[in-house]
Every structure is written in structure tokens, then in C-alpha cells.
Amino acid sequence: MTQMTFARAINSGLRKSLENDPKVILMGEDIGALGGVFRVTDGLQKDFGTHRVVDTPLAESGIMGTAVGLAYRGYRPVVEIQFDGFIYAAFDQIVCQVAKFHYRTQGAVKMPLTIRVPFGGGIGSPEFHSESPEAYFTHTSGLRVVSPSNPQDAHVMIQQAISCDDPVLYFEPKRRYHDKGEVDESLDAAGALSMEKARVVADGSDVTLVAYGPLVKTARDAATAAADEGVSVEVIDLRSLAPVDYATVEASVRKTGRLVITHEASQSGGLGAEVAASITERCFYHLEAAPVRITGFDVPYPYSKLEMHHLPSLDRILDGVDRALGRPNSLSGREG
Amino acid sequence: MTQMTFARAINSGLRKSLENDPKVILMGEDIGALGGVFRVTDGLQKDFGTHRVVDTPLAESGIMGTAVGLAYRGYRPVVEIQFDGFIYAAFDQIVCQVAKFHYRTQGAVKMPLTIRVPFGGGIGSPEFHSESPEAYFTHTSGLRVVSPSNPQDAHVMIQQAISCDDPVLYFEPKRRYHDKGEVDESLDAAGALSMEKARVVADGSDVTLVAYGPLVKTARDAATAAADEGVSVEVIDLRSLAPVDYATVEASVRKTGRLVITHEASQSGGLGAEVAASITERCFYHLEAAPVRITGFDVPYPYSKLEMHHLPSLDRILDGVDRALGRPNSLSGREG
Amino acid sequence: MLTDELGQGGTAAEGPGNRAEHQGRTSGNLVQLITPAGERVSHPEYDPWVQDVTDEQLCSLYEDLVVIRRIDTEATALQRQGELALWPPLLGQEASQIGSARTLRDDDFVFPSYRDNGVAYCRGIKLTDIIRVWRGNAAGGWDPYTVNMATSQIVIGSQTLHATGYAMGIQNDGADSVAITYFGDGATSEGDVNEAMVFAASFQAPVVFFCQNNHWAISEPVRLQSHIHIADRAAGFGIPSMRVDGNDVLAVMAATRVALDRARRGGGPTFIEAVTYRMGPHTTADDPTRYRDANELEDWAAKDPIRRVKALLDRKGLLTEKLEAAVQQKADAVAREMRSGCINMPDPEPLDVFKHVYSTPNSWLDRQQDHYARYLASFGDPAGAASEEGAH
Amino acid sequence: MLTDELGQGGTAAEGPGNRAEHQGRTSGNLVQLITPAGERVSHPEYDPWVQDVTDEQLCSLYEDLVVIRRIDTEATALQRQGELALWPPLLGQEASQIGSARTLRDDDFVFPSYRDNGVAYCRGIKLTDIIRVWRGNAAGGWDPYTVNMATSQIVIGSQTLHATGYAMGIQNDGADSVAITYFGDGATSEGDVNEAMVFAASFQAPVVFFCQNNHWAISEPVRLQSHIHIADRAAGFGIPSMRVDGNDVLAVMAATRVALDRARRGGGPTFIEAVTYRMGPHTTADDPTRYRDANELEDWAAKDPIRRVKALLDRKGLLTEKLEAAVQQKADAVAREMRSGCINMPDPEPLDVFKHVYSTPNSWLDRQQDHYARYLASFGDPAGAASEEGAH
Ligand SMILES: Cc1ncc(C[n+]2csc(CCOP(=O)(O)OP(=O)(O)O)c2C)c(N)n1
Ligand SMILES: Cc1ncc(C[n+]2csc(CCOP(=O)(O)OP(=O)(O)O)c2C)c(N)n1
Ligand SMILES: [Mg+2]
Ligand SMILES: [Mg+2]
């Protein structure tokens, strides 16, 4: 076990993948000498060379499209998109090509791409540096989407993503990059909990609180705060956003009868809607209240002086917990 | 009142917009001499000239980005994306620019773009010609998204979209292009039902069936078939997909207590999830069963010999109605 | 029809590929080795690259041209008869496709568009596989790795990036094979094609950009995409280019060999503009009378790629009755094989709709498949029940 | 600082813009009118375009250069002091920005990137407005229509399409104004920039592509984007280009006027590569010591754009103490104004988060706003309660 930051834990996972499989190749803007704008690839080009860790021209569709070609040739490209807001230029290649080649070729051509995306807000950045575009990808068949919430998971899940034969979007909660945690680097990625499984990170009995990526910490803090008020919150870290491990969520909701979901992305059409709808389908008669969504608003990610209003905070989550429980809350007296 | 096809009804609406406002300008691939691959712009270049009806180079991001520039200059561009599957190349410009300029400039710069997208399947086409990408846009703040289901609405709503000061995605159900209907061309777009409002297209009392675009016809047929079995289905044509007119849906569900939603797009993260979640929030205690989604599967749009399995059919919708009503159905005995 | 039966041509190191003319911008002169009248004209730079083409091989090229046109005609007929959902004819572009594809080695890799079915034939792809996707029976017709050719790309220009990435992989592997990508004049306007040139130039990847300028992108004339020669685009990326008569099978071969040779020797990418003409509609769903002048067609008919090879063979005394009969027989056989392969193609099973989306199980999809199987079962006869409405 | 105080220069019809050299490819020769040592060198083609620049105007250009550098220094300081969230320095690129922006007419329209704050200054944009977005107080700093300049674009290359579309609008309107777009060397790799050239060439739109090749895209050297001169890219699209010393304010002015003049007269787009250098970090968040050689910085310091104008003024006997004092005073005043504008900028109100998303009411958003207002109200003190956690 070693104490390391979230960013370092990914770096170390990337290093192990580069060591273990000569077909792994990292691509992106500024990932070489600079080590990426967040230093996640720090030192890797120095140690593995410019053919394994490739600084690319400034063209996201080009990066993704050439990564597709490399995968065609048998490589396992790990693409870094510098910031969440710049993935849209690669959207066409991701949705039409990356996601569909396996299907198009009846399984002959595999697309073991990993697409790393630092995502989410809370770091006081300008436009396009704080977005949460995950719902665009969870709605895209052919892709898998994951998001780690802590250094240990980050370390293991990046390796699992790289060794997965399907394309994986790997969303890194950038405001957690500097968070430290214990990481067991000897943990065998194959032996560790599958990246497809959700994890109950706090047991509780009154309400189920579902979060992922950057908000897992906030959700846990909220559970601790709720406990002070005598409310027992079960917190689930989704880890996999597509597919969602509904079995784990369902088991919890069958127990608690109440569900709160939180994410930074805008509410309408966000992953929260999908989780609410699916859990309602699966255990409607166990639900004692409508699932509650505490999310970003339906606005472009706001400029930094306003971002704390957009981002789900501990207090907003607690207000949602109260709503799910039918306790006094900011909307008391209204249905939904 | 004139009998005309769905395609012709749009054509006639475009013509009126071109006549009424010199700032309206049509752009797209093959929309000139050819009149578009579906002939929706037939004859318009001949009558309004190459400066009003512009055949563009083959570059979707280029079309969208120059349309943004034209809007900046005070024009009202109406962009045709030739097929649903080719909108992704323009995704970056739509999500980062079209949707955000009004916000970015504190309202100084308006983006009165209309983006016409023939969408959906059922016409036996190859890959990328049958997609339903609407959920990507309903999740994008700053955009409005509509879809007409019949010639009269198509005629009026295209004019409403063009005169709207916000950007509007206008999804045209291509397999209905040849359907005929009565169109009152004298109907004043300002006086007609707002494109933001849903419409109850069949009254019923047992279950609410929500559809839009191509599936409204199928939903109405399903309601007729259900009536034979003594089940009264209320059919709602959403018309506006973002924002959804929840007031209308909610009123119906408060009455019926049951909800079925259908769309061609893949299920996970589709608009159905959003409708299910929002209606559950709004009237949980009026719901007698979980909302049911009858949708395309989580697969790339299949090749044409399989598309009838992917597309929600009358029978699948009826099966969903039975499920919502707790009547015997293909999943009887399972919760959800 | 054999790939690379014509060898690699010339002595690589001394070839014109090394000369300055090829390293920089194209002069704008159209490379031509056979005139429309079938006269073999000499060209000091390009002749060496086809000097190994024997009379026998010339006859074989002729056969391919005829066979491919026959495939195109037969597929169009199958579409008219309702056996194919759609077909994108390559009528008029035979020489561009045969001339380039026949210079490839087996270990080269092709990234085509939807119209490159002549190339597919040269790669040895089964006729049934070529039309599978156009009948609506598959998302892609063949296993790319068995023939080293990707399946048809429908998103315009996308494949040029795949080819470039693949070429970067070749380079990493230290191999001397080449990736070649086919695309149209319209495609040159897409960002992806331009980004592909950026990457190819930056990494000096062994990729050949083969643009068939057939003068039309559906209804849009090439001048809407560019006021200058398409080949001139490449120079701005630092990529050498050639402008070649795309209706001249020898000229196309020579130019492609120049490009392949450069790529194999580490000289990086090359751009070829094959100037040709789409004699048919864009696809069987198109009606070109709405937008193009019949005179244009006539002009180009006079430059037909097959007629000129035939005339050349005639001049050389090679156009025997025996050859004509053999070629005819081959074309007939191919057409028959394609037709029967088409008509007898088994329909997919309903649950195939869930296949191959992922390479490993996916809980969302598995559940949907399970539900749909139950739904089908609820009718007793699975396939029948579900197919009833769908396409309303 | 006044826009177009220098007039339009030369007699348009006879200018070098009409000569063949400008219509086709650039020769690759760097246009220079002032040497790094401050010597005014003559250039028969470009001299006419700046012959109207008086001594007084030269002094005013000098003032702008100094003021803009001061703005840059002050903004960097404000960032270090925590008053700005971020700042992208333009240190070293002053001549490119001033030289080009000062040739514009009021009715021309600018589509900039994030680094073009010197251009913003020339357009008369208020200092507080320039930094508003960098403090995190707004998504865009100003109303584009009051100054005919769009707000900063962060998505690399995107704005080149907006400029091209705007220019198409100018053309439709029959006006003789011009759209000019600023972007970097890195941006030239993006599909959008290349598509912008396709559209500009196809429609012969009155747009100027002004590329500041500052040799770096964050940590990536320009050779990763292109092995050949950036200016050469344009020829492949049929767009004439010029390669100009971007640290030479007069050369930049001359080249920009050639381009503007061509556009006004219906001659279509022009591409200008201003060869300059980013002397500072990419942004205040960057650490260039990780990737670039200190020697390179030294080399470029010797070509400083301000020093050479100063030397020229000195040679001309114009560098008086009075001038120096006046310039200094102006720079101080500007810095003071910016600092106080920054520090006194009022924070937004919590509910501003819902503002300006749509131009007409939106039921989804209205409901969310209503709920959030109730939520805030439930704490009594709205703003305080909500700001507590967010950024954890
Ligand atoms: C990204 C994209 N946009 C639009 C289309 C629709 N489309 C199909 S073929 C075609 C024209 C292509 O022209 P060109 O590149 O010259 O190739 P050709 O068809 O002439 O072989 C268009 C616009 C598409 N398939 N993909
Ligand atoms: C589409 C997109 N990709 C990546 C980025 C991140 N990024 C910001 S600036 C920059 C480098 C731009 O270099 P250049 O175009 O040369 O402009 P300069 O910063 O040198 O002025 C990058 C990669 C971005 N803003 N947009
Ligand atoms: Mg073409
Ligand atoms: Mg730069």
C-alpha cells in the first residue's frame, strides 16, 4: 500500500499497462514532455519512448480516427482528451466508428480503445473545462463508460479498461486529482472487483444515495452529516455508468425503499433519469417515494463564480434525502 | 385545406418562411438543384436563388459553423443535415457554439438557427441512414428540440422553429415523408398551437401512451387496436422533446395512473427515461404501475433485414400497455 | 484478378518517385499513358513503373475492367428487381479502381468508401460478400483481416483517418506494407480528410490517399468543393501528389506504384487524384437528370476506360475472338455467381439484432435480449409475429 | 489606439494584392519591413501599403505595443495575486495583434481566440470587459455588436468557421466590410480550420485568416503540426497567403491591408501567417520549463517586437523623453484602470446561473430556477448557504 494522489494512481496504472502489453500506446495532446496538463502521463514518454507515448497534432477527430486505425492494426490505444469540453470534435469518430466497428464487422474487428476524459467542475476553470458529457456516451450502444471515485479504483480500473476488448470511456473526476489515498499497486486488475460492478461505499437503511466520480466523496460526506440527524444513508458508487450495475442498486432500494441520485451533469436526459426510470421499473412496488435527482441545472456549465450553485453540494443532497424521506425540505408540500 | 405529403408540407412551410423574411437562408448538401435527397427543398433554389438556398461543400461542421457566422450577422439559417447519422460531424459546433452563444454573450448574440434532421428508421436504408439521435440534443442546454408527426404540424412547426430566436433541432420522421394529410396553409404560425406544447391526439382513460415523430401513427393504431379489447388508451404526441410539455403529460397520468412511452432510439438514456423519471417525480402517488418504455434496443441501428425487430411495433406497444395495466403480457410475473 | 501479379515494377531506388517533381507539388499535368483512342503514349517518368506489364497482363487487366462493369450492371439490375436495397454504381471508374488495387500487395491494407466494389473484387472478396450489405443482410460484408480490406465506409472521409492510424501502426511494427484509402472529391471538404493529411505528414506514415475525382458528390459538382485541382490540396500539408487520368488503367497503376514505393521506403504519404467520372447515378436511389447535363455524360463516354484498353489491345493485335469470348464467359460466370449468392442469402434470425454489439456480455443488452426473446415466444412463432408492423 | 486611424493605405487597384505573387502560393519568403535592429528595410511590394504611416502614427503604434505589454504584465500579476483565475499571456505577439487590428475598419468584424487581448484593446473594448471572463465573472466579456468583435473562443479553430459564415453574410448584404479571424499554429490541424478554408474559397468570402504562428501549442512545437510553412497550407485550398514577420508591426500592417483590400474588392479570402513567438507560458497555469529550451527564448528575445520599433524611433530621432514619459503614463493609467476594474467587479447573483440560456422562457429551466430559489430561501441567506460546499 502506498499513499498517492488520484492522478498518480492513474499514472501508475498506465505504466503497468504499458509494461505488460507492448500493444498499449498512449496518444493525446501534450501528454509527452509536459506529461499532460494534469501530469497524469508524467514521465511516461521519457520511459517508454515517443512511439508508445505519442504527442499528436491538435485535432481530436484525428486523434480518435487514427486510434481506430491503430486498433485495427492490433494496438490498444489509450487516448487522452485534454478536457471534457473538447471531446465533441471527436464525437463523430467515437459514435460512428469506435462504437460500431465490432458490430459492423460481426466481431472480426475489435476496438479495445480507452478514452480518458478528465471531467467535471469545481476547479474554477473557464468555459469547456468543467463539463460532464457522460450521458452522451451512456446512450451510445457499443461503448462502455466508467468513472472511478478514488485512487485505488482509478489505479485498477484504468488497467481493466485498457485490457477490455470493447471501447471504454474512462471519466476522471478532475477535481479529485490531488486527493490522496492508499493504493495497493500489487492488486491484480483481473482479480479486483470488475469495473462493471457498483460498490456500496456506506451501509444504510433509510435511503439509497447513488453517485459516481467526483460526487462520491460529497455523497459520503452527506451520509455522515445525515447520520448526525439520525438518518441512515446507504451510498452506492456506480463506478460503471454504462452498463449500470442495477442489481446492486436494486438490492439497496428494495431495502430502503427510497432513492436519491446525484450528478454534476445537467438534469434533463442525464444519467439520473436513466437510473430513476430503470429502478422504478425494477422495483416499483418497493418504492415509497419518487426517486429524487440532485444534479446540475439545464444550463451551459456556468462561469466559475457561479459554479458552486450549479454543482450538487452536500446541502442540496441532504435536501434531496429529506425529500425522498418525506421530511421537511425546500419543496415541502409539493409532489416532486 | 390541401391534401399534401409530409415532405411537401415542410416544403411549403419553408417557402413561406423564405417569402416572409429575407434573412431566412437555407443551407445544406444537395438542397439546390436536386431539392434534397428527400425533395423537401424541391424548387426552392429555383425560386429564391442560390444566395437564399445554398448548396454547401460536403462538410457538416463547416455548414454548422458558417451558419453560426451567418446568424451572428443577423441571418436565420435553416440547415439541412442530409441524414440523422451525419449530424455527429457537426456535433461540436452544435453543442459548443450553437447552443451556447446566447448564454456566452449575455443574450447579445442570438442563434436563431433551425437544424432540420430527417431521422428514424423503417425505410430499409444502410448504416447511418436510420438513426434517432434526439437524446443527445435534449440533454444539451441551450437547444430546443421538436418533432412533428403529421403534415399539418410539420407545416406550422417548421415556421415556428424558424421564427424562434433560440436554436431549434427539427426532427423530421423520414418514414412519414410520403404520408398524406390535410394541411391548412393559411394557418398563422403565431396563432397555431405553440411548438412547445404536447397534444392529446386520442382521448382515453386507462393508460397514457406517449409518442413523438414517427411513432405517433403507430401509437394511435395501437390505441385503436386496444379499444377493440376494451382498453382505453390516451395518446399524447409530445411534439416538443426539449422542453417536454410535462403539464399535459402529467394531467393525463393523474387521470389514468399509468404511463407507456415509446421511441425508436435506444432505451438506455433515451428520452423515455427522462419522461418516466420526471412524471414519476411529479405524480408518484397517482401512479399505479411503473412507467413502461417500449423503445429501440441498446444496439447500433441494425441492418435493414432486422430493423423491424428493433423498431417498436404496434404489438410491442400493446404488450407494454398490457404491462402497465397489469394484464397478462410477455413479462408477466416479473416486476419490470 | 490476382493482387500484385504484376510485381512491384521498376527498380525502386531509381524510380521517379525520388525525383523532385514527386516530392513537392503536382504540376497540374494529367498523367496519361493510354489516350482515349487507345494509343499508348510514352511518359519518361511514369513508363518505368509499368514497363513490366506484359501483353498477357494487359489482357488480364482488360478482363477485370469488363468483369467489374458486369458486376456493377448486375448489381444495378438486382436492385431494380428488388433483390438489393441499394447499389452505388462505379460505372466509369473501373480503371481507377483496378489500376490502383492491382498494384497492392496482399499485406497492404485498404480502407475504402462505399463505391469501391471494384477494389473489393481485386482483393478477392467473394461476390456474395460484396453485396451482403447492399441487400440489407449485414452491417459489413466480410472479415477485413482475411482480405486486408476494411468494410465499406459510409461516413464520408472517416476512413482516411483509419488508414492513417493503421499506417502509423505499420510504421511502429517496422513493416514495409502500406495502407491505402479511397475517397471521393466531395470527401476532400470534410475535416477528417484534412486531419488525416496532417497526421500522415506529421508522422510520415506509409499511407496513400487515393481520391477518385468523379466530378460529382451526389448533385454537387466538384468545383463547389474546390476551385483548383484536388491534387493541389496535398502540397499544403507537405504531401506530394499526382494528378492522373483515372480512366487510364496504366497511368493509375504507375502512379499508385510511385506512391506505394515511396511509402515502403519510408518516404511517407502520397496523394493521388484520379480524374474520372461517375457515369451512373450516385446510387440507384438517385436521379441525376435533375442536376446534370446530358452533354457532360457524352463527353466522358468518349473517354471510357474500357474502350481505350480494348482499342489498345486491338492495335497490338491482342483482341482476339478467343480473348473476347473468355472475358465474356468470365463476366457471365461472375454475374451468375453474384445473382445466385444474392438470392440464396439466408435471412438473419430475429435475435441477431443483439449480436456483436460488445465482445463480452453486457448486462443492459442481455436483459433486453431476454425480454425480447420472451416477447417473441409469447406469439408462439417468434420471427413472424414481430415482423408484422415495424416498417409502417 | 484608434481603429483605422491610419487609413486604407496605397491605391487599392494598383497594390501588390493584385499581382500574381499574391494570388497563388507564398514564396516562403518572410515579409519584413523593420529588422530586429530597428532598421527600416524597403520592400517594393509591401512598402506602398504603409507609405501613409506618419511619424506620429509610428509613435502611436509604439504606444499601443507598450500598453498591451503592460496589460499583459498586469493581468499576469493579477492572476498571481488571486484576482484572476487564469490569464493567457500574449507576451511577444504584440506586433502581430496591433499591426493587424489597427488596419481594420470599425465595420469589419473580428473572430478571435482567447489570446487576442491585444486585438480586443485595439477594438476599444473596456479593460474591465477584457478581463471579466478571466476572473470567472462572465462567460463572455462584452457585447460583440458594440465593438464588432466576438468574445474569446476557447474551442480551438471554431471561430474560423464563424468568421467565414459572417463573411458570407457580408457578401449577401453587398457590403464591403471584412471578417477577420485569429488563431494559432496549433489550430491549423483542426478540421474546422480546414473546412473554413474550403467554404471561404468556394464562396470567395471576404474573410482574412490571421494565423499567429507563435511556435507552440501548449507544449507542442509547430513542427508537430506541419513540416512545411503554415502559410503554405492555404494554397491547397486555392487561397493566396503571405508569410510575414509577426514581430514587425509595419510588415503585419502591410500584409493585413493587402488581404483586407482584396476582400473588399471581391477578391475573396487571404491567409496570413504571422511568424512570432510566445515568450511566456501558454497560460498562467502552464510551466514551459518542462518542455522548452531556454536558448530558444533568448533567440526570440533578440527579435522583440517592441524593441525594434523603439530602435526605429530612435534612429528617426522620435524617441524623445517626452514620448517615453507619455507612453509610460498611458501604460500606468491603463494598468491602474484594469486593476481597479478587476478588483471592484461585482460578483454575480446566485440566480444568474439560470440567465440567458434561452431568449424566451423554457419550462424545464424555469422549474429548476423556481426550485433552486426555494432551496436558497430555505436557508434564509440564499447566497451564503449554497456556496459552502460546491468546490470540494
Ligand atoms: C458525413 C457524411 N455526410 C453526408 C453523407 C451523404 N452522402 C453520401 S455520398 C455523398 C457524396 C459523396 O461524394 P464524393 O466524396 O465525391 O464520393 P462519390 O459518391 O462521388 O464516390 C454524400 C453527401 C455521408 N454519407 N456522410
Ligand atoms: C478543441 C480544443 N482542443 C484542445 C484544447 C486545449 N488547448 C487550449 S490552447 C491549446 C493550444 C493551442 O495552440 P495554438 O493554436 O498554437 O494557439 P496558442 O495557444 O499558441 O495561441 C490547446 C491544445 C482546446 N481549447 N480546444
Ligand atoms: Mg465524387
Ligand atoms: Mg501557438
Would you give an account of this structure?
The complex is a heterotetramer, with two copies of chain A (336 residues) and two copies of chain C (392 residues). Chain A is built from twelve helices and 14 strands. With 336 residues, chain A is an alpha/beta fold. In chain A, the strands form three sheets. A seven-stranded mixed β-sheet of chain A has the order 3-2-4-5-7-6-12, sandwiched between helices. Chain A has a five-stranded mixed β-sheet with strand order 9-11-10-13-14, sandwiched between helices. Chain A has a two-stranded antiparallel ribbon with strand order 1-8. Chain C is 43% helix and 8% strand. In chain C, the strands form two sheets. Chain C has a five-stranded parallel β-sheet, sandwiched between helices. Chain C has a two-stranded antiparallel sheet with strand order 4-5. In chain C, strand 6 (241-245), helix 10 (249-264) and strand 7 (270-275) form a beta-alpha-beta unit. The interface between A and D is large, with 54 and 56 residues. One thiamine diphosphate sits between chains C (115, 154-156, 183-187, 214, 216-218, 278, 282) and B (29, 58, 60, 82, 86, 89).
What is this entry, summarized?
The complex is a heterotetramer, with two copies of chain A (336 residues) and two copies of chain C (392 residues). With 336 residues, chain A is of the alpha/beta class. Chain A has twelve helices and 14 strands.
